[in-house]
Amino acid sequence: MESYKKEFIEFMVDSDVLKFGEFTLKSGRRSPFFMNAGAYVTGTQLRKLGEYYARAIHDTYGLDFDVLFGPAYKGIPLAVAATMAISELYGKDIRYCSNRKEVKDHGDTGILLGSKLKDGDRVVIIEDVTTSGKSIEETFPIIKAQADVEVKGLIVSLNRMEVGKGGSKSALDEIRELYGFGASAIVTMEEVVEHLHNKPCSGKIVIDDTLKKAIDAYYEEYGVK
What we know:
Layout: H1 3-14, E1 18-24, E2 30-35, H2 43-61, E3 67-70, H3 75-90, E4 95-104, E5 110-114, E6 122-126, H4 134-146, E7 150-159, H5 171-179, E8 182-188, H6 189-196, E9 200-201, E10 204-205, H7 209-222
Parallel strand pairs: 3-4, 3-6, 6-7, 7-8
Antiparallel strand pairs: 1-2, 4-5, 9-10
Helix pairs in contact: 2-3
């Protein structure tokens, strides 16, 4: 596992973004872990988060694209932070774009924030996490309605590695098949468990044997076979 991925796992825990315990998800599933990207609230956290995304985007899709699209609302700061990091780390200027939840009819009109999309643009979508793929169902038509663009792929921070709506493949795999573009994550939940199981993180064991059994049981029921 690359060193920046290990650092990112510990960064999620230290930022109180990735939590372990008992949580009820929107899907109704009872999960032993939960991720909330809304807990990134400081300038330092957002700068570091942007750098981790930038490295993952570079490793996965390269820099041969034009626009980083962050769906409203959580995707907006992600797109801004990552485009800044790409500029600082790699000297490449990528435009950022996001959508509004409501179309604005005065001033800076339309549904988009940031850069407009133009015919021929190559777009990477950035999100926090994808469990069911529902957000892409909403985002993809918005992007395609703005211009004749090529979506190169989706990048999320954590692949939960759970079955999607179809019940047999992961949400990211379903997205790849349905839309025909790449779908990747900075880290997978498998990598998180591998790095944290019975290993100290900020001076404490985050995933002990008991929690590891709970995670294993969760994936027996909801994980990709």
